[in-house]
Design a protein that fits this description.
28 strands, globular, alpha/beta, single chain
């Protein structure tokens, strides 16, 4: 078949696209500029962007495998086109010297940290990051030369008026580029578009999205903008445009549906799906939280069973290694079963079905714990074929726990060392976030369930994509794949919007959006894998017949599951567990189950300085600030946050993988040797002499790994893993590197937290300066509201005003609260109520004694200092003159309330409190006139 008209038209226009000299630059020339080499698609899409912007038209481009390098090329190209326009080489209805003379900047919306470092290497691009309070870094140069441009980078989503106010006052844009890929930001595209048209009317906008991103496609369909969808077949046709049609190769992107005829698991799962489906209908009239919680837990477990591609026992081992039953914990399957069993449903029929689901799930758990699923057999079979044929292979699984379990499973089979550039295992979620770092594989094996809105990244990920499923779900998966292929894989229409766009035939009232061809068939090849029936310990085999109508209920329930994927999972409290306390924090409603023996990391606010300390959970008090890392494995989450989110070191994930191999050896040793002494003896036989304490530390994972490389090798030999023994040097190198990074990051992170507590707007981590929003991607700080130890009930007040009755009842003989003081306590958001009460107790004791002449003021100050409170005997007359807050009458007389107590030094009133008082010598009372927010001072 001949090429579509747009292919020939675009080829003819390559030489006349704006900035054609840049588009035809050699890789060597681009390297000198700090720009990555251009490929065939880049030349077309960059030139098209320049052509549209040249006449002031906005454009949305959807392309396969979007990466940050594309934006570096695009921004550099557009800035070069602007300079050519100023020099008179390019003339369009919008790109004219007079128009661009006073428009220097090219604004980019996305995640600035993903692109900033790359842009700094490009001469003349001048990137700077825009925040709510930032000032332009280009003022000194952009105002002096119209030829010099700046590239402001704004975080996405940034639908905040103050950021746009900064952009309006600090920039003069000639165009705006938006990274609407999942790696850049896609949740507020429509709102961003509307804001840009208000703040920068008439400025063309270029939106770049990922091919097949259904969520973005739906949003862009509601925006008045021309669209160029660069489908996979379009990409191939453009690449082969100079090759005779007779020599065109078939599309390299093939999807193969592999049906695994595991009749035992197929029957159990299909019946379970139907039961859950009926259960959802029956609870539709129940409260929403009962619907979601109970259904979500059941759906979560059946998804695990449906997608599992390794022995369940292996997965449980790795899950237990990482699981931390707390705020961000991932419960294991058995824990989920307990939750479903304890779920409270009112109606008998619903309760009966719930129990039936629980029993079915337990049956599946026991079945898989003693057997091997058909998908696990298929994984072993296909990986062996991949290794023998030397095909680069990517295996996609459900989560990182299953990733480690699959790697361990393949190592025990001694098939291949995973991640040696031939076979790689990754969770699908991880791949979606760092796709630009992934190569194009020969084949991709997908064992996890992929929802339609998250299938965008499969465009170009591998030449052949295999989807593994059981018979009951094959129709559903097949229809999803066919639909995706029809929309994004086959070519655009031969005569359509692409041709109109290149011929400048823009309609006056509508916008160009090309459609896929209808004369090309999109189909999915199906392969039935008869050699993988599964292996189980059962009394008799099962048989099941499927009909086409099964797709109806399956589609309904799977679509319902898909709606839950973007919701935050509920925090499930630990029921009837004597080893766990309950911590309630002010930032969320759900309790945090916390092991009573596990220490809690606290950001302590002590006087004029803060520090990081640890406490026993029993010693926590309301107002304590708990540092919670966003992940269940503390060290790994910090490292991933620093090295993946901020792209400081692209290969750090591989380092973590090598370190996890040491964990695999330790787990194997724990299974093989019942005591540390027996493992020590086995290591001595291999030539490693260490103490029993050292071996015990290895087994209990109190250290990252051994100091000697020979210890790694001998551990592998002791457990019989010859594959990992050959890679002992790589494992040991990774251990040493992780240990070094732990030390460095620990120092940086501690300083960052202290800087944040002091009110800093940015912090330093390594060589990078980050705003607080970036720091929040790594950790959160929660304020303790109450703590309930096993067997106790909460007794703590909820707000500062709750202390008023207690102060009057217990401390009223020496401390008097005025009406003004009571109002100030009611209006104060101060959180550390335990510290506030301790302060009032000291007012009753030591401060009263000081005012009464029984102890010195120095002794009183020391008593307050020991609990992190500063006692000041006066406030300067200058400060008091700044506000009427200090003008107070007591019993008809003016009194000086300059004496005060300082709790906290931050600007946040939730962390800071001031207590102003005077001494009534006639009644021997400490009279408190204010207890709450900071009164006016010179700096405020």
């Amino acid at each position: 078949m001949n090429n579509p008209a747009w292919v020939n038209q675009a080829e003819d226009r390559l030489v006349v696209f704006p900035g054609s000299a840049f588009l035809n630059s050699t890789p060597e020339q681009l390297a000198k500029m700090g720009v990555p080499a251009l490929n065939n698609d880049d030349q077309l899409l960059l030139g098209l962007s320049g052509r549209m912007l040249k006449d002031g038209h906005s454009l949305a481009i959807s392309l396969p495998r979007p990466e940050s390098g594309f934006f570096v090329k695009l921004l550099t190209y557009l800035l070069r086109v602007r300079i050519d326009t100023l020099n008179g080489y390019i003339v369009g209805s919008y790109f004219q010297p007079d128009t661009l003379q006073n428009k220097n900047d090219l604004i980019w919306f996305g995640r600035p940290r993903n692109i900033f470092n790359s842009l700094t290497k490009v001469q003349g691009i001048n990137p700077w990051i825009v925040t709510k309070n930032s000032k332009s870094q280009q003022e000194n140069i952009a105002s002096h030369s119209a030829l010099i441009s700046g590239t402001p980078l704004a975080a996405f989503p940034s639908i905040h008026s103050d950021i746009f106010e900064n952009l309006v006052t600090q920039t003069r844009p000639f165009a705006v580029v938006v990274d609407a890929t999942p790696a850049g930001g896609r949740n507020d595209i429509k709102e961003l578009w509307e804001a840009l048209t208000i703040y920068f009317p008439g400025i063309p906008i270029l939106i770049v999205s990922a091919l097949g991103d259904v969520q973005t496609d739906q949003t862009l369909s509601r925006i008045p903008i021309h669209r160029w969808i660069h489908r996979l077949r379009d990409q191939q046709l453009w690449l082969q445009r100079s090759i005779p049609a007779s020599k065109h190769t078939d599309a390299p992107w093939q999807h193969i549906l592999v049906e695994v005829p595991d009749k035992v698991l197929d029957r159990h799962l299909s019946e379970l799906y139907k039961t859950i489906h009926n259960f959802r209908k029956l609870i539709s009239k129940e409260p929403l939280n009962i619907q979601n919680d109970t259904y979500r837990n059941a759906a979560k477990i059946q998804q695990i069973f449906s997608t599992l591609c390794c022995p369940l026992e292996t997965r449980e081992v790795f899950l237990a290694r990482h699981s931390r039953r707390g705020l961000f914990a991932v419960r294991n399957v058995e824990r989920q079963l307990e939750i479903i069993n304890n779920a409270s449903i009112r109606y008998g029929e619903v309760d009966s079905i719930r129990k039936s689901i629980h029993e079915s799930l337990h049956g599946l758990f026991d079945l898989l714990l003693k057997g091997t699923s058909g998908k696990a057999q298929a994984l072993e079979l296909f990986v062996k074929e991949a290794v023998s044929s030397k095909k680069t292979t990517l295996i996609l699984v459900a989560d990182k726990y299953e990733e480690e379990a699959v790697i361990d499973f393949l190592h025990k089979k001694d098939i291949v060392l995973v991640d040696d550039k031939l076979v790689s295992v990754k969770p699908a979620g991880h791949l979606k976030s760092v796709q630009s770092l992934q190569p194009i594989y020969d084949q991709c094996f997908i064992f996890t369930r992929m929802w339609y809105q998250d299938m965008w990244w499969i465009g170009g990920v591998a030449k052949q994509v295999y989807w593994f499923c059981y018979p009951f779900e094959s129709n559903w998966v097949g229809k999803r794949l066919t639909s995706w292929q029809q929309s994004y894989q086959r070519a655009s229409a031969y005569q359509g919007s692409k041709s109109d766009m290149l011929l400048l035939a823009w309609p006056k009232l509508s916008f160009l959006t090309d459609q896929a061809t209808e004369n090309e068939e999109a189909s999915v090849t199906t392969r039935i894998l008869k050699e993988c029936p599964g292996s189980y310990v059962i009394s008799k085999p099962f048989t099941i017949e499927h009909d086409d109508e099964s797709i109806t209920w399956l589609t309904e329930i799977l679509n319902a599951e898909e709606q839950f994927q973007d919701e935050e999972p509920n925090i499930l409290a630990v029921e009837n567990d004597a080893d766990y306390a309950r911590i309630t924090v002010e930032e969320q409603l759900a309790d945090i189950p916390w092991p009573v023996m596990k220490p809690v990391t606290i950001l302590s606010d002590a006087g004029d300085k803060s520090e990081i300390i640890t406490k026993k959970v029993a010693d926590l008090t309301p107002g304590d600030q708990i540092i919670m890392l966003l992940g269940e494995d503390v060290h790994q989450e910090i490292l991933l946050g620093l090295f993946e989110v901020f792209h400081a070191q692209e290969n750090f994930s591989e380092v973590l993988r090598w370190v996890n191999f040491w964990g695999t050896l330790v787990d194997s040793a724990s299974e093989k040797f019942p005591t540390a002494a027996k493992l020590q003896k086995a290591l001595q036989q291999q030539g490693t002499t260490v103490t029993t304490t050292t071996v015990s530390n290895w087994l209990n994972k109190k250290v990252i790994g051994p100091e000697e490389v020979q210890s790694v090798k001998n551990m592998a030999l002791a457990v019989g893993n010859t594959t990992l023994s050959r890679y002992a040097v790589s494992i040991h190198t990774a251990i040493k590197r992780i240990w070094t990074e732990h030390q460095r990051i620990g120092r940086d992170l501690r300083q960052a937290l202290l800087s944040r507590a002091a009110g800093a707007t940015s912090v330093k981590l390594g060589t990078m300066t980050l705003c607080m929003d970036d720091l929040d991607e790594i950790l959160n700080i929660f304020t303790v509201h109450s703590i309930v130890l096993p067997g106790q009930e909460p007794i703590y007040p909820k707000s500062l005003s709750d202390l008023v009755p207690r102060i009057r009842e217990e401390l009223g003989s020496r401390v008097h609260l005025t009406a003004r003081a009571t109002r100030s306590m009611e209006n104060s958001p101060y959180r550390n109520l335990d510290k506030a009460w301790s302060c009032f107790e000291l007012i009753f004791s030591d401060l009263w004694k000081c005012c009464n002449g029984e102890i010195s003021q120095t002794d009183a100050k020391e008593s307050f200092r020991q609990i992190g409170i500063e006692l000041k005997s006066k406030t300067s007359a200058v400060t008091q003159g700044l506000s009427t807050d200090y003008e107070v009458k007591y019993e008809g007389k003016n009194v000086d309330i300059g004496a005060h107590l300082c709790l906290g030094t931050a600007y946040d009133p939730a962390k800071t409190m001031r207590i102003h008082y005077h001494w009534d010598s006639d009644k021997s009372l400490v009279v408190i006139h204010h207890a709450g927010r900071h009164l006016a001072i010179r700096s405020s």
